[in-house]
Design goal:
By secondary structure, this protein is an alpha/beta fold. It folds into 2 domains: 278 residues, Rossmann fold, CATH 3.40.50; 254 residues, Rossmann fold (3-Layer(aba) Sandwich). It is built from 17 helices and 25 strands. Helix 12 links the parallel strand 12 and strand 13. The longest helix has 16 residues. Bound molecules: glutamine. The site of glutamine (GLN) has 10 residues, from strand 21. Glutamine (GLN) binds next to strand 21.
């Protein structure tokens, strides 16, 4: 029977609850257990799909097409377990479900209330499709004390009693701040946070304390005493240099042992196999070289908007044992005259996914610079679309080439995707439809041309990658573009949607309509990122 680990946070946000969950998942796996991770988010948006990446960070897309919280990306990167639609739920979706039921008359005229209706729906989500894994890790978004998170806290409190004895534990992540003027670590915020948690009926089994300094034995005992946990259950979470060190650090701090102990499970006494993580850390801390990659995008001021991308670039570095230095450049920069010098000296240029016209001309310029100078170019989704527009304008002589995502253009090389095939049949979209839930989302297969560069990189001619787009490269322009030297080397199986383009006359110029960064893992770097960084290494030796 599946055991549940509920992870809550206190004091402040951004303490790394997602990384704690992901790392604990990895540690349990290293001890031979199966895991699944889940995020319950208290905000009212139905899903993160329409939330601004400025506010919320990237939207992470699963194989089954869910637009989810970026923490699910951490879960996959640390455990390799592909997330599903059922692994992320928000208050918005919970309420949507309940209100639909109410409208259908499912409640037979009864009063619909937070307890039990909302809490029951939360419990259903938390326990759905557990698939008999050994451990289900449920992270609750927000911090204790938020009004919004109360129904979630109540639901997990109840769930512990609904489950057989010993099948659920609570982990609480808090902050132990260092007050420089006093030269002391302060435990009071943690005490208050746990007090708040206990007032709603949740006694944490394990306390994880984020801190910049080692927690002295006396302070640890004080935390244990005031928070009603055993000394060994106060786990120190010191800042580390790389997120991939976190599993190792938590193991050293005793987290996995304490968690198993809280379930009354004997840890076999054997050390878990953490070689995967120590190997990764060796590649990160002892690189044999360095490459500079320019990422030309729009949300470059907020790194979280490109979380999976920056991780995938780092994974490409791990695969080649080099450090990847990323220059984040606002694409609008290239719309000014003589601005291209910003790209001098970089070993690779990546234009990532994006939406809307602003900055698009700058991205097209960046693609042109890469093509003309022979600098490795990697276009992802919007970045592929911009590279195709560049090729249409400057290689195929279609001066008016553009995208119908922008205002009026003579040759919509990139046009609205109105029809595509899914397992369930044909999907269609109308121009001017709703923004929420109208994209081509999730994993779709693509067929790669025999002998193409990408077929060589993947060592395969059939691949499956995750998508999130509304527009597509119009296949009717294929012949003209191929005649001009841009090869369509990956297509949807029905041959209607271009999935990959490459420029055979260039050392490494590849555009993909999907998001390979979503499937890259530090222990299994995505082949396109590994190959892109390899090309950047070669380029760095030329200059
Ligand atoms: N805006 C483009 C589209 O909708 C690209 C999307 C993306 O880069 N994810 O097709």
């Amino acid at each position: 029977m599946t055991r549940y680990i509920f992870i809550t946070g206190g004091v402040v946000s951004s303490l790394g609850k997602g990384l704690l969950s992901a790392s604990l998942g990895a540690l349990l796996q290293a001890r031979g257990h199966s895991v699944r991770l889940r995020k319950l988010d208290p905000y009212l948006n139905v899903d993160p799909g329409t939330m601004s990446p400025y506010q919320h960070g990237e939207v992470y897309v699963t194989d089954d097409g869910a637009e989810t919280d970026l923490d699910l990306g951490h879960y996959e990167r640390f455990t390799g377990v592909p997330s599903r639609q059922t692994d992320n739920v928000t208050s918005g979706r919970i309420y949507q479900t309940i209100l639909e039921r109410e409208r259908r008359g499912d409640y037979l005229g009864g009063t619909v209330q937070v307890i039990p209706h909302v809490t029951n729906a939360i419990k259903e989500f938390a326990t759905a499709q557990a698939d008999g894994v050994d451990f289900m890790l449920c992270e609750i978004g927000g911090t204790v004390g938020d009004i919004e998170s109360l129904p979630f806290m109540e639901a997990i409190r109840q769930l512990k009693n609904d489950l057989p004895r010993g099948h659920a534990i609570f982990i609480h992540l808090t902050l132990v701040p260092y007050i420089a003027a006093a030269g002391e670590l302060k435990t009071k915020p943690t005490q208050h946070s746990v007090k708040e948690l206990r007032s709603i009926g949740i006694q944490p089994d394990v306390l994880v304390c984020r801190t910049e300094h080692a927690i002295p034995e006396g302070e640890r005992r004080k935390i244990a005493l005031f928070c009603n946990v055993r000394d060994s259950a106060v786990i120190e979470a010191r800042d580390v240099t790389s997120i991939y060190e976190v599993p190792i650090a938590y193991h050293k701090a005793g987290l996995d042992t304490e968690v198993l102990d809280a379930f009354g499970l004997e840890s076999s006494g054997e050390e878990p196999d953490l070689s995967r993580w120590t190997d990764i850390m060796a590649a990160i801390t002892e690189p044999e070289g360095e490459v500079k990659i320019a990422v030309v995008g729009k949300y470059t001021g907020l790194r979280d908007a490109y979380k999976s991308l920056s991780e995938a670039l780092a994974h490409g570095g791990i695969a080649n044992r080099v450090k990847v230095e990323v220059n984040w450049i606002e694409s609008e920069v290239f719309e000014a005259e003589n601005s291209v010098h910003h790209l001098e000296g970089v070993n690779g240029i990546l234009v990532p996914g994006g939406f809307g016209e602003r900055g698009s001309e700058g991205k097209i310029e960046a693609a042109r610079f890469a093509r003309e100078r022979g600098v490795p170019y990697f276009g992802i989704c919007f970045g592929m679309q911009m590279a195709v527009i560049e090729a249409a304008r400057n290689m195929a002589g279609l001066g008016g080439a553009g995208s119908s995502e922008f205002n009026g253009c003579a040759d919509p090389i990139v046009g609205l995707l109105t029809e595509w095939e899914t397992d369930a049949g044909t999907e269609t979209r109308e121009e001017g439809g709703d923004l929420g839930g109208t994209m081509r989302l999730g994993a779709y297969p693509a067929l790669l041309a025999e002998g193409s560069q990408v077929a060589g990189i993947y060592h395969a001619t059939e691949i499956s990658e995750r998508h999130r787009h509304r527009y597509e490269v119009n296949v009717h322009y294929r012949d003209r573009l191929e005649g001009a030297g841009l090869k369509f080397s990956g297509m949807s199986p029905d041959g209607r949607l271009p999935e990959i383009v490459e420029n055979p006359a260039h050392p490494w110029f590849i555009g993909v309509q999907f998001h390979p960064e979503l499937k890259s893992k530090p222990f299994d770097p995505h082949p396109l990122f590994a190959s892109f960084i390899e090309a950047a290494v070669k380029q760095s030796r030329l200059v």
